[in-house]
């Protein structure tokens, strides 16, 4: 299921886009389907191999001119030029990265002025409940290492465009937020309560079937339930930002 709203992001066919921390590729596939020039970036070579296979399988179904490829690397040192991308998605990845500010600065660096960025992370309240119910939920290799509030993450991103040396620089512009996957939060509370690896528990199995129904069929009753639950207990928080154009200096003030 998609977490990011690509209409809100402003995605258009032909734009160069980055899915940073692409994982299984769900957002990269949607951007490709919409005709973008997509880079799915991740440090997991096995996941990227599967994403590449799906890109190949989709090639006859996407708009003419759309391109997609995978790239393996480190989020703290993106192998891309300054301002290379029109749109960037970083979905459910920053909560895994120890040096998150450095990763955010890299995202801002490779985004063009005027371009937009969508970042999603686990929402504070549902995540706190999971951490309280089970240490195993987050104490795993590559697991979640922090819980963000919206104010903390907005502050980190908006400041990321400013140079460290005190020279003038424009802050990223926060454009709004949304919440997603309200039906998923209770599932993870249940998993945390009975054991995150206890997939055979009857309640976990029944709830999992409900989520599969939502993902595969997206029936009206579950869509309506999502609209009610997303603002209240949506598991994911999505923040949208725009990179400002540089402010031209006034030549009359030059020495």
UniProtKB/TrEMBL annotation:
The organism of origin for this protein: Nocardioides luteus
Keyword Transferase: yes
Pfam families found in the cross-reference section: Methyltransf_11 (PF08241)
Keyword Ubl conjugation: no
Domain named Methyltransferase type: residues: 18-119
One example GO MF annotation: S-adenosylmethionine-dependent methyltransferase activity
Protein name in the entry: SAM-dependent methyltransferase
Biological processes per GO annotation: methylation
PANTHER family attached to this UniProt entry: 2-METHOXY-6-POLYPRENYL-1,4-BENZOQUINOL METHYLASE, MITOCHONDRIAL (PTHR43591:SF24), METHYLTRANSFERASE (PTHR43591)
Record key words, sorted: Methyltransferase, Transferase
